Amino acid sequence: MAVQIGRMPERLWPGNGCQMGYRIELAAATRSALGEGAVWDVGDQRLWWVDITAGLIHRYDPKSGLNESFDFGEPVGCLARREAGGLVLAAKSGFWFFDPETGRRDHIADPEAHLPDNRFNDGCTDMQGRFWAGSMRDAGGPAPAGTFYRLDPDLTLSAWRGGFHTANGLAFSPDGRRMYVSDSDPAVRRIWVCDYDMETGEPGEARVFFDTRVVAGRPDGGTVDAEGCYWQAGVSGWQIYRISPDGEVLLTIDMPVEKPTKPQFGGANLDVLFVTSLSLGLTPGRDQPEAGSLFAIKGLGIKGVPQVRFAG
C-alpha cells in the first residue's frame, strides 16, 4: 500500500492565545479536502485522522513530525483503533475492519445499503469500547437522512436515532454517563446531550445542550476534556469553543482557517489539542493557505480523556 510521508513545517500562530499562554502550530500541511475524525491512541502515541472525500487515513507522529497516509479506496467518515489490532471504521459502504499495514479490508455491515446517496460521517467509541458512528446525505439535501448507529464488540449493529441532516459531534463525558451529538446543518446547528447507560449502551432522551446560533461557527466534530467540558469545532466560524457541562462558553480560540472540523486531545500528556480542517467551499478572498491541514494547540493547561479502543 502506498504511503505518503511529509515533515512538519515550522509555522505557528500566537493569535488570541498570545496573552493566554497557548499557541497554534501547523502540524501537518496536507491541504485535505475534508480533514476529520481525529483520534489519539495512547497505545501507539499517534493521531489517526481522515480525509473523508479522498478516502485517506492519516497517522501522525508528533515526535518525528511525520504524517503517513493510507488509501482506503472509498470515503471514510471516522475510525477507532481496535484492541485486536488495526482499525474499525465507518465509510461510504458501512462498517469495516482495516489493517493499514497490509491493506486488508473486512466488511462488517452496511446498514444503509438502501440509501446510496448517504455516507458515514462522525463517530467515536464509548468508555466500554463500543463504536458509534453517524451518517448523512453525501451531497446534502432538504430532507434529513442521517442516523446514529452503535457497533458492539460482538459486531451487533443497532440504530439509535434518525432525522439528522449532518450527524456529528459524538463525544462521551469522562465518566461515560453523558453522550453528546450534534447536527451541523445551518437550519439546525444544535448540540444535544443524553444520559448514557454504560451497561447497555443505550442513550436516554436527547435534550438541547448548546445552540450555536450564539457563536460564529456551526457545530462540527467534538471532544471532551478531563474536567468534563465539551470542545466544539466551529466550522465556517474560524473558531474552537470550550463549553462547560452547563452549556456556558468558557473559551473561544480563533483559528487560522475558516473551517476547523474536529478537535482531539493528544500528546504524551494528553495536553495538546489537535484540530483537523477542510479546504472545500472556502469564502473567496480570505487568505488561508493552510486550510485542510492538521493543527496543534499547545500551552492550554488542559488535559483530555484517553480514547478507548474498540473492544471487538
UniProtKB/TrEMBL annotation:
Keywords: Calcium, Cytoplasm, Hydrolase, Metal-binding
A family per Pfam: SGL
GO molecular function: hydrolase activity
Gene3D superfamilies (UniProt xref): TolB, C-terminal domain
Top-level taxon in the UniProt lineage: Bacteria
Cofactor(s) it depends on: Mg(2+); Mn(2+); Zn(2+); Ca(2+)
Reactions that this protein is recorded to catalyse: D-glucono-1,5-lactone + H2O = D-gluconate + H(+)
Signal peptide: none
Subcellular localization: Cytoplasm
TM spans (from-to): none
Domain SMP-30/Gluconolactonase/LRE-like region intervals: 34-278
Mitochondrion listed as a keyword: no
InterPro entries noted in UniProt: 6-blade_b-propeller_TolB-like, Regucalcin, SGL, SMP-30
Main location: cytoplasm
Top-level class of the enzyme under EC nomenclature: hydrolase
Its EC number(s): 3.1.1.17
Family: Belongs to the SMP-30/CGR1 family.
PANTHER family the record matches: REGUCALCIN (PTHR10907)
Descriptive protein name: Regucalcin
